[in-house]
Amino acid sequence: xxxxxxxxxxxxxxxxxxxxxxxxxxxxxxxxxxxxxxxxxxxxxxxxxxxxxxxxxxxxxxxxxxxxxxxxxxxxxxxxxxxxxxxxxxxxxxxxxxxxxxxxxxxxxxxxxxxxxxxxxxxxxxxxxxxxxxxxxxxxxxxxxxxxxxxxxxxxxxxxxxxxxxxxxxxxxxxxxxxxxxxxxxxxxxxxxxxxxxxxxxxxxxxxxxxxxxxxxxxxxxxxxxxxxxxxxxxxxxxxxxxxxxxxxxxxxxxxxxxxxxxxxxxxxxxxxxxxxxxxxxxxxxxxxxxxxxxxxxxxxxxxxxxxxxxxxxxxxxxxxxxxxxxxxxxxxxxxxxxxxxxxxxxxxxxxxxxxxxxxxxxxxxxxxxxxxxxxxxxxxxxxxxxxxxxxxxxxxxxxxxxxxxxxxxxxxxxxxxxxxxxxxxxxxxxxxxxxxxxxxxxxxxxxxxxxxxxxxxxxxxxxxxxxxxxxx
Length: 473
What we know:
Blueprint: H1 2-10, H2 14-19, H3 29-53, E1 58-65, E2 71-77, E3 81-87, H4 98-106, H5 109-119, H6 123-126, E4 130-133, E5 139-146, H7 149-207, H8 212-250, H9 254-264, H10 267-289, H11 295-319, H12 325-328, H13 336-409, E6 419-422, H14 435-457, H15 459-472
Antiparallel strand pairs: 1-5, 1-6, 2-3, 4-5
């Protein structure tokens, strides 16, 4: 009976489990030793398994850097247009981070699959890189693990090569798409330029105008011709007034003055005129002295008539008309002063006729050019509009070509340049397993277990003290 009571007292009750026993109660020691043994076994069994059975693993590191500087280019084409292109810094946008993009590309399936194929490994055997970004910098670090230092280095180098190759493929793909779109637009621009050039050629063929400036030259020529015609009209009016005044002064028409000058210039006519004047004087003298039927008067009269006929015949031969005596009787005598005036009259009459001919020619030219300008006005307006559209289309085409050429130079617009700061390293020691760290962790966990058991051993005095403090309060 006493043994049963002792055994019952040694069995823990719920209240005793909660509050614990006395600190001097050695009966609790086996239970605490068992708990410690179970806990220590649970801690050190996986640690020992990790240290002794985990195969060694090596890590190779690679460091990359993005320069991050933008680029600008500008092309000025004289009288054609301007093309400019610029690419901002890769880190100028807060919405897109190239380091995050490259981090995703490093772990993408396409990168890892090609790296595994290059190393003749399965994708799960290759593993995934561990990428680490350094804040406030453009540095990218990634690590690859392998069963040996050489394998780890080879894996890191393969991932790096495939990553750079994928970047080049992405840039080429982007440039190909951009170039395709640009070439399609340029083809449309070229078609528009060709259509405008063909329309301009049709208008030029129909009108005979080379350009709108040619039409403006026609207008300037018409204005100049109008000024020349006004001056010719004024000159013709002045010459006509001078001829009329001199003709009225001499009492001779310009045509008659011209005939007189031609007759006075003929020696034979002048001799016949002098002989006629002498015979006429003789006839007049004999008529005054003798009768009308006197033989001398009759003879002188026949002589005068004969000379007059000869004079008329000579005048007809010289000036081409028989009406000589009737129109030139007063000028048969040679008078130097009158001959000079007649010569002036003829010269002024000739000048008037020349100015009249010039005026007529200018009037005809002005009429023709005004008719041509009126006919070409709508065609010139059409040509000017087409030339303006052609200049715009040509400028757009030239700018597009220059922009396409300059944009091809910046291949790092969407995918910035990345440089290898540190090549794949050859690790000198394994990164896993790490026995020192594992043992240190086991020791620390064991100490924490001991501390927990010590607190459990002396929890009753602590609980009683807390209860007494609460009751006294």
